[in-house]
Amino acid sequence: MKKACINLLVFLLAAIGTGTLLSFQSDTTENDLMVLVKGGLLKTVDPVTNKNIEVNIKPFLLDKNLVTVAEFEAFVYATHYVTEAENFGNAGVFDDVIHQWSLIDGADFRYPFGRNKPKAEGNHPVTQVSWNDAIAYVQWKGKRLPTQWEWELAAKNGENSDQQYTWGENLIVGGQYKANTWQGSFPYYNTKEDGYAYTSPVGAFGKNKLGLTDMGGNVWQWCEDSIEPTPREAEIDPSTRKVTRGGSFLCDPMVCHGFQVKGRASSTPESSMVHIGFRCAKNP
Q: Residue 10 maps to which CATH number?
C-alpha cells in the first residue's frame, strides 16, 4: 500500500509540475522501468592513464530514465530527507548573464537556479543533488548507482561499438537534434536550436537501441566510482571526486564534448550542481 501511495504521489507531482497528465499504471513494477544490459567485455580507455583497457562487466539492470524531480520529491516526502544543498544553503549555478559559475543562495532541487527563478518541473531530471544525496535515494529504492563502466557499456548499447554517440555519429539526424546540448558559443550565447536553454523533460530526445533515454546530454549522471582530481582540479580542491558521465545542456562540442559515449567528468561527492543528476542501477 505504501509503495502504491508513493507511485501515485510521483504521478501527481509530475502532473502538477508540468500542467499535463502523464500516463500512469498502478501495476508497473520497478523492473518494468529498467533495462537489462547483458554485460560482457568492454573495450575502453582508462581515464587516468589514457591506455586502452578491457573491463569485464556482469549483467545489470539500468533505469530507462533519469530520476525526475517528482520522483525525488516523493522520496523526500516519504523519508523527510534534507539534501546537502539545503543544508549548505546554496548550490552551483551557471549564470548565463555573467557567463560564469556562482554559488546561489537558496538553490536546491526544487529551485535549481535559486528562489527568484522558476520552480523545477516535475518531469525534468532532478538536479542540485550531490553524490551523497543520490546514494540516499538509490538505497531507499533498493538500488545503486551504476559504475562508470556499466554506464559506458549501456551508452554503447551493450556492444563494443566505436560510434561517437549513443544514437550514432551525428548530433543532428534528419534535421532533428538527438540530445539537449549547448548550441552557439559557450559560455557567451546559446541559440537554443534544440528547443531548450536548460534541462528538458526526461526522454524528450528519444531512446537508444537498448531503450534508454538521455544517455547523452541533458544532465551529467553520477556514477559509483571515485577518481583522483587532475593537477588543475587539485589546486582548487584536492579531495577525491566521483565520476559523472553523459554530458549536459551546458556542453558545447567546441568546449565540452561530454555527451559523447566516452565523455567523462567528475565532482566532489558533496557538490550540488545545476547540470548533474543521476539514474539507478540494480543487480538482476
A: 3.90.1580.10
